[in-house]
Each structure stands twice: as structure tokens, then as C-alpha cells.
Amino acid sequence: MSFSIKVDINGGVTSPQGFRANGIHCGIRKNKEKKDLMLLVSDTLCDAAAVYTQNLVCGAPITVTREHLKNGKARAVICNSGIANTCNADGVEKAAAMCDLTSRFTGIPADDVIVASTGVIGQPIDLAPIENGMQALADGLSADGADAAAQAIMTTDTVQKSMAVRFELDGKSCTIGAMAKGSGMIHPNMATMLSFITTDANITTEMLQEALNWCVHRSYNMLSVDGDTSTNDTVAILANGHCGNTRIETQNEDYAKFCRALFKVCNYMVRMLAKDGEGATKLVLCEVQNAPDEETARTCAKSVIRSPLVKTAMFGADANWGRVLCALGYAGAKIDVSKIDVCFSSEKGEIAVCENGAGTPFSEEKAKEILLADEITILVDLKDGEAQATAYGCDLTYDYVKINGDYRT
Questions:
Q1: How is residue 357 annotated by DSSP?
Q2: Catalytic residue status for 86
Q3: Secondary structure of residue 353 in the 3-state scheme
Q4: Are residues 87 and 191 in the same domain?
């Protein structure tokens, strides 16, 4: 199937037709230079889908959003940063109130609003700054507001994370745009990670949910910064159908194209999230090849990428391949360790460090040069099939401890 996807790294959630956004500082956060409130709206009602954290301790906004998305429809997203609105007795009430405020200032029914929060857990959220900022937030909604919105959901992120892709469906030009936040408390099965995705494709709620599940399973759920699964993770997608393609109602060729484009977006977001891990200096990928099945490949790749000892070795540019085999050994997958090959790869080259489960002679100097790059791939060949998977992470540095040692204060 010949299919072209054009990536726009300067795009975002307002790149698709019919979406507007804005982000402001309303006063939730003390630092007035940091935006802390975001609003994203569609001109029309959207088919909507979402996936959430698997942590049993989940944020109140997730409870409200789940209820609102029971009908598979939404038109707006309201999100604050600074306070997570989690583990608070009045959390659900206040998350619902944020939807009510959105309705009051936009005219969009509260039940059609997705709500999210990110920040410190266990502190009550004050609605006064949000209410006071809503008029300016709504008045500033714009097709050029994607950057402001992406900045408003950041916490310890050092860079905003957004992009868009363009492709054709049924002869029509379609777009998917996205933004994300996340830097710490990030672990497979979602993280302190929020991602909001928009598209002008015409697709049913059922097909949208299937596509999102498929993509998240192979992207966001393959991401680990520090092994902590957060309480507030949400990936939500809105599809308003403005591009005018024939509605996707089955897993046909257009559905396959849409999935490929959506995965392109999710995969790009995950790389940005991993690279911006708290205190990180390197993006680290683990590619597992020739596994007996995809689940084995995924399990092994995630085990390597979340290993603190592997992560610290990558920080120190130490070709300590034994830590990779150790992580594979406790992954819980049925593998033949006597077959495993391991290589380290970067823009500086590639070097084999383990063959058939045992060390092979290599140049420590060359290995160090490869591992000093800011993007490293750990290649694992299980030599037991044709399945493959990639997990995404980063190194573990002194700065991670510094950031999290006083995160709340």
C-alpha cells in the first residue's frame, strides 16, 4: 500500500481543521512565567476516545472524564498544571466544576468536556484562579494557540512537546495534531503523562478507540523514565470529521492508513517524552529483534529500558552489557539466553558486545565513543522468531535525584 505521511514538527493540536486552543497563567502555579491552564475546543462535536493510567490510585479528573466519554463524544479539553487533583476528598467535585466553568465560558455542554490535571499529588486544587482566568482563556482561543496550550500542561518538562502529520484519506487531505507532557514518574502502562490528540478525519468512536488502543500499546506503553506509574495519565483523541473523508466504520484500507498516521504521531511523542526525562542527558532505545512473538519482544524491551543499572550505565557511557542480559533474564519472558546477541549503536557506530549469551571481545574505547552520543540504541537479537518491539527511555542521572528530592517544595 503506497501511502505518504508528511511530518510537521512545528504543528500541534490546532493543525487539523476546526480546532482552537489557548494557554495562560491563571495563578495555580507561583511562577508567573509558567502557564498553568489550557483549553482546547473543536468547532463541532467530536467522536472521542481515551486510555488512562492503570494505577489503582487515579486522579479525580479521570473519574469525571470516563463518565463524560461513555457516549464516545466530546468537544473540549480543559487541563491545569501544578496540582494533580488526586487523593483529595473533594477532587471529583472540583474536576466536575472545571467542566462547568468551561461550559459557562464557551457554551459547550459540561458533559462534552474532557478534564485533566497534572502536578503535585495530595494537595487540594483551588478553583478561584481557574474561574478568574477562564474569560481570558476562552477569549484567547485561536487556531494559532497550539504552542500556548502545549506550554500550559508542562510541569518539570524542559521543552514543549507537539507535532502534526498530514496524509490523504479517500482523496481528502487529513491532519492529526498532538501535544504531550511528561518528564518524570513515567513507566510502561502510562505515566505522569498527558497527551491530547486532534484530527479532522471522519471516523466512528469505535474505530477511533480501536486505533488508539493499538497505537498506545506500541508507543506510550513502551515508555519508561523511572519505573513509577503515575496517577493521572490520560491519552485522549478528538475527531471532528472536518476533512470530509468517507466515514471510517470498519477496519478497511482507510482505517489502516489512519492507524499508521496515528502511530507516527504517538511514536514521535514518545521519543520526545523519553528524551526529556527528568535529568536525562540521553535518549535510550531498546530494540528487540527475532522474538517468538510480539508480547515476548515487548516484555524484554521494557525490562531492559526500565532497569536502573542499565540506565546508569548509559549515563556513564559504560558498555556494561551484563546488565542488559540480567534485565532480560528477570523480564518474565520465556527466552533462550544462550542464543542472545547484544549490540550498542548510535550515530558514532555500532559494536557487538555479546554473542550467544556470552561476552565477545570488543574495544572499550570504541564502545565508550558510541555510548557518549545523546541517542543510543541497545539492540537485542533473541534469534528465536520474527517478532520485534522497541521500548523508549533515557539515562538515570544525578539530576533526577535533585529534581525529585524537592519536587513538592
A1: T
A2: no
A3: strand
A4: yes
* Residue range 403-408: mean pLDDT, rounded: 61
Res 104 pLDDT > 70: yes
Per the structure, the count of domains in the chain is: 2
Contact 47, 72 (CB under 8 A): yes
Residue 133 has pLDDT above 80, yes or no: yes
Higher local confidence (pLDDT), 225 or 245? 245
CA angle 226, 62, 94 (to 5 degrees): 115
pLDDT, mean of residues 201-214: 97
Backbone angles phi, psi at 345, to 5 degrees: -140, 145
Q: What is the CATH number of the domain that holds 177?
A: 3.60.70.12
- What is the phi-psi region of residue 78: left when phi exceeds 0, alpha when psi lies from -120 to 50, beta otherwise? beta
Domain end marker among 255, 275, 295 = 275
Find the catalytic residue in 14, 53, 192, 231: 192
Measured CA to CA, the distance from residue 268 to residue 196 in angstroms comes to 13
Distance in angstroms (rounded) separating the CA atoms of residues 339 and 123: 51
Query: Rounded distance, CA 277 to CA 399, Å?
Result: 10
Whether the CA torsion 166, 256, 384, 190 is positive or negative: it is positive
What is the extent of the structural domain holding 347? 283-405
Q: Does 59 or 150 have the greater pLDDT score?
A: 150
For the beta sheet containing 375-381, the strands, ordered from the edge strand earlier in sequence to the opposite edge, are 358-359, 349-355, 341-346, 375-381, 283-291, 387-394
pTM of the model: 0.87
Closest residue by Cα to residue 378 from 396, 348, 352, 397: 352
pLDDT tier, 191 (very low <50, low <70, confident <90, very high otherwise)? very low
Reported as a pLDDT band with limits 50, 70 and 90, residue 228 is: very low
Q: Which residues of 107-131 are buried (b: 16+ CB within 10 A; e: fewer)?
A: ebbbbbbbbbbbbebeeebebebbb
